Write a sequence for this structure.
């Protein structure tokens, strides 16, 4: 999928699916429940019913709820032999119902301001027993070690994401400090609270998303202040996925050339491993790593290169995504149990679990001690 225009133009007729069921083998909600209703194939049949049958309000709501349990992890796209994108059908079908339109409205309100965003996440985190990140500053010896690395001439834009402007601002601050110490010539963009509008995109309201995408990219361009920007660093894999895949046209139009969009933790870890050339910063400290579903990066390998002993979760959907953390609590709980199932003893022994997705860190904190990967790095680099 190249960009948002493809997203709009994709055929989303559920009948295109040949019902082979291959997609079930990787769908986390099907694997967690064994229920066909929660598989890509089952949801395509449900989409067909919503679109073509004359359902009453109760039936529509029940089917809407079934579609709503999709986490938009995109795994079905990777396994479908016809390269279908079932999750696109689900979000667009949902948006044709009254409940889907309410979902879009709620998404718009949540991301409309820093206050609404912070408040809604603070309330839901408290209700669901999730812990917000703490503002623990990295040690001063770490900061001293990196002072003096010359800045590169290439200007980079860093988008902290809606999380980074609000409840994950301690992590965004660490990212900024690390970028500075690594000599990256960057500017935080946009300068104040902003959202890439992923919640609008994933609620299926494509027209609203496109308008917002244009506005968002214009803000980025303004912050470049005439400098030639070739790279945008983004806090979190889902926002990276959205900007990279669904704003390509807008970026090319504003910047007049191709822009590389990279997740900031991935960029920082790569830069550090390149700089250290095999030297280690950890003497084999054990960590658990959770790779978020939208992440393209093999972060475990980089952390091993830095000396960590890394165990990785093999169930890739922790139950945060697709608004599950907010709305579909039983599915969200089931996916969390599946993700952490094989680490029960490690967690009891005090093992900490890390991820580069703010959403995953929140969800994991409900059952384990969790933190962002950049918090980990900022604590260990003082050993260099
Ligand atoms: S793998 Fe593709 S064609 Fe087969 S059931 Fe799933 S969505 Fe349909
Ligand atoms: S996007 Fe993920 S959760 Fe949704 S149907 Fe596809 S594999 Fe299942």
């Amino acid at each position: 999928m190249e960009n948002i225009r493809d997203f709009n133009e994709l055929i989303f007729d559920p009948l295109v699916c040949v019902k082979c069921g291959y997609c079930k083998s990787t769908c986390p909600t099907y694997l967690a429940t064994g229920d066909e209703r929660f598989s890509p194939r089952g949801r395509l049949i449900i989409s067909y019913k919503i679109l073509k049958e004359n359902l009453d309000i109760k039936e529509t709501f029940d089917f809407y709820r079934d579609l709503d349990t999709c986490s938009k992890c995109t795994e079905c796209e990777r396994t479908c032999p016809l390269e279908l994108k079932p999750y696109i059908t689900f979000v667009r079908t949902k948006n044709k119902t009254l409940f889907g339109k309410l979902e879009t409205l709620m998404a718009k309100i949540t991301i409309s301001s820093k206050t609404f965003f912070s408040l809604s996440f603070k309330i839901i985190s408290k209700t669901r027993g999730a812990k917000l990140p703490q503002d623990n500053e990295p040690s001063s010896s770490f900061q001293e070690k990196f002072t003096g690395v010359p800045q590169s001439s290439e200007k980079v834009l860093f988008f902290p994401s809606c999380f980074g402007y609000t409840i994950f601002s301690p992590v965004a601050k660490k990212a900024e400090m690390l970028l500075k110490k690594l000599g990256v010539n960057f500017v935080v963009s946009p300068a104040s609270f902003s959202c890439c509008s992923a919640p609008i995109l994933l609620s299926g309201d494509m027209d609203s998303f496109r308008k917002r995408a244009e506005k968002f990219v214009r803000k980025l361009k303004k912050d470049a202040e005439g400098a030639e920007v070739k790279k945008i660093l983004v806090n979190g894999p889902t926002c990276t996925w959205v900007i990279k895949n669904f704003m390509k046209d807008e970026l090319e139009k504003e910047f007049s050339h191709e822009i590389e969009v990279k997740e900031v933790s991935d960029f920082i870890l790569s830069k550090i491993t390149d700089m250290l050339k095999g030297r280690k910063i950890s003497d084999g400290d054990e960590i658990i790593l959770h790779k978020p579903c939208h992440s393209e990066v093999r972060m475990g390998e980089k952390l091993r290169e830095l000396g960590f002993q890394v165990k990785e979760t093999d169930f890739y959907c922790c139950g945060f995504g697709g608004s599950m953390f907010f709305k579909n609590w039983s599915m969200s709980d089931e996916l969390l149990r599946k993700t952490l199932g094989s680490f029960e003893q490690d967690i009891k022994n005090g093992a900490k679990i890390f991820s580069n997705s703010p959403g995953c860190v929140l969800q994991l904190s409900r059952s384990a001690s969790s933190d962002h990967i950049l918090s980990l790095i900022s604590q260990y680099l003082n050993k260099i």
The CA atoms of residues 65 and 328 lie 8 Å apart.
